[in-house]
Amino acid sequence: MSFFDNDGCQLHYEQFGQGAPVVLVHGLGSSTRDWEYQIAALARRYRVIALDLRGHGRSDKPRERYSIAGFAADVAALIEHLALGPVHLVGISMGGMVGFQIGVDHPQLLKSLCIVNSGPEVKARSFGDCLEIAKRWSLSRLLSLETIAKGLGRLLFPKPEQAELRRKIEQRWLQNDKRAYLASLDAIIGWGVRERLGRITCPTLVIGADHDYTPVAQKQAYVRELPNARLLVIEDSRHATPLDQPECFNSALLAFLDEVEQAAATSPNKDRQAC
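^ that's the sequence the OP posted. Answer follows.
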């Protein structure tokens, strides 16, 4: 367990393995434990760094407005703190948004980018979008963390054989600081970098679950706007793909990372493989 300070906030991170660095960024209301089924598999071939964003996990929870740009600055500071150089960055949900933000603001920090069940904006494009965002914003404030946790567990892991995963979500969600959770939710709503996706030129893998919150078609649309990206759809999965389909997810991620590393090793301009 390690900590470093950025902008007056103490941030928790963990390291495993050796090799090219892979930075893992969790989702809203979560922590490094998003990656419990990935770390061991990745660490056999890579140096894995997982962190808790401010307001989450073991990191400080300052009483301030949070932003995706601020979360991205924390990740960039960790990369600098550990002198990692360009990294493979993997982000799920809100962590994917952080990945997009780093990609447009600090493309030189990325060797590759893997986006999991996420997108480059959370903006209302229709009346239905407005209603959905308003509903989530309101219910998050009205309902207790316990109620949210139970509902989320049923939504993410509806199968009878997923009872253990539901239990984990219910227990972990209760450990959130609700003020920090709501501040992080507010950071998401209205955020977007879609108009700048052309800046992300590094190899990009977008992993989408067939039963994610947002349809595959939306992911296909923004993948076409990325210069060097492809989409992989994982079947029989919902929003928490690394947890509900870990073997398939790990296999796809490792194949992608190995491909990028091999291309970098054989390129005559391998020192220029960052975005």
